[in-house]
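Field guide to reading this record: the first block holds the primary sequence, the second block holds the structure written as discrete tokens, and the final block holds curator observations. Each block starts with its own label. This record concerns Carboxy-S-adenosyl-L-methionine synthase, catalogued under organism Desulforhopalus singaporensis.

BLOCK 1 — SEQUENCE
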Amino acid sequence: MVQEVEKSSTMTESSKDNLFKVDSIEEDFVFNERVVEVFDDMLERSIPCYKQVIESSARLLVKFLTPGDTLYDLGCSNGTSLLAIAGMLPDDCGFSYTGIDNSAPMLEKARLKTELFSKQDSVSYLLEDITQFNHPGAGAIILGYTLQFIRPLQRESFLKSLYRCLRPGGVLLLSEKIISHDRRLNREYIDIYHQFKKSRGYSELEIAKKREALENVLIPFSIAENKEILTKCGFTAVETYFQWFNFVSMIAVKTV
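BLOCK 2 — STRUCTURE
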């Protein structure tokens, strides 16, 4: 399904991520119309093992969801990952999928993709502030590279609200960019990540400028810090299920 979503349109120059080839950065990174047009290319070239994380997440969801459950994707952007997961899970279980985002342009693109793949019956979208999430009875909640954009002082109260809205036995899947508090490891992980981006066609200038734009917007925690805050919010089982250097995916389970 990931491949099907990607093949829905031919890559053109306008859909390629060239946002940071300009000579200066005029603002912090925001999910505006310009980002919407290049977002799929940006994901593919900026997030290591993006497809593998989606596939691994779907395998876990099969184990924890029950028939009729609703899965929420918070910060769903243009719906690519949510549609991919919906395509990997069984159709006969009556699952519902709801993507939530505060970017109207992103959701417009998501709805177009959903129509293209005839998923309107099971996949829907809400224009909401995810920090105000209040949808009780959720079977699963996905935070895909989203928590890192929420201010650190707000994260605990936000995660507590997600915990309250999950049904007993429900799960939170969290994917994040992380830091290491070992200074050498942190430097090496960052260097390996920059080499990855260069291998995907980004120049040194583009890498530096995107890092500058994200500096005050994306604030990563370490694995230990993420585990600590999730445990503090009530989750009894918190484990890593995928890691690539400074990118990690974690599952947090609410006690039955």
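BLOCK 3 — OBSERVATIONS
The two ends are 31 Å apart (CA to CA).
Confidence is low (pLDDT under 50) at residues 1-14.
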